[in-house]
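Quick illustration, no need to memorize.
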Amino acid sequence: MCCNVSHDQGKKLSRELRVISNAAKPRLPKPEWLKIRLGDPANQNHVLKLIEGLNLHTVCQEARCPNIFECWSDRTATFMLAGDICTRHCGFCAVGKGEPGLLDPDEPRHVAEAVRQLNLAHTVITSVNRDDLPDGGAAHWAETVRQVRALNPECKVEVLIPDFNGDEHALNTVLDAQPDVLNHNTETIARLYRRVRPDADYQQTLTLLQRAADRREREGRGMKTKSGIMAGLGETFDEVVELMKDLRAVSCDIMTIGQYLQPYEKRLPVERYVTPEEFQRWRDIGMDLGFKHVESSPLTRSSYHARQQAEDEPRVYADTRG
């Protein structure tokens, strides 16, 4: 019997087969250096009540970030725009997949209010991918940045944006709102994109960062560009160094490198746990390559120590857990 399978059906089947394959692999035991700080429950409850009261989402919760206890204890959180359902199918991500709902027109104001109540000096805002929207949600992004600035004029705003499918106009819509830091994560090396980020393109990510840097230079802005990756997905040490060189070639200022942790069974398995010594070597190499800041440790994430990363003086942040 002949079976006619569409391109989209074929991609879906391929993803399902990868999930089955991933689930069959036993999990590696976690090394002793992966220690999570539990922090202050009172501050954590304060942040949780604030987020729930304003009907907001955080990547801390949706992505199962290991630093949630520490960051919420410091009364900080990374806000996630445009709902909690993503239109992409990345193999590493814990965020829900499927058909997203309508944008909440009150969300930009609610994020601004949360920043005010937490009295933040530096806020990080991210979002799910919204490929269902003509501009990928760029106008919603820009409005959020503007409202945060209006209510919190002293707060620095860092945006961790999706790739907007390479749409330069959408990128410029966000840049028009003048964020202090423009972050777009590379996530992994080019060789692993098909497995790790099947709906994304490595060169497109580099192009986005280059466009942001080019506009910064044309307009004389102080904005910094930033990107990050996860280690432990099958890359070699030298492949990470080559990626770092690619990021510097597009004038990326800040880089984060952290250990990938499998969020649940049906996500990509951890291929290996990178040692703290290797993270330290990447950090040193990155600073030698000219990054203004390299955050590199097992529990580093994009927004971890984000305020320190964006400081004007180039430095290396010493993470005592590494």
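Residues 50 and 114 are 7 Å apart (CA to CA).
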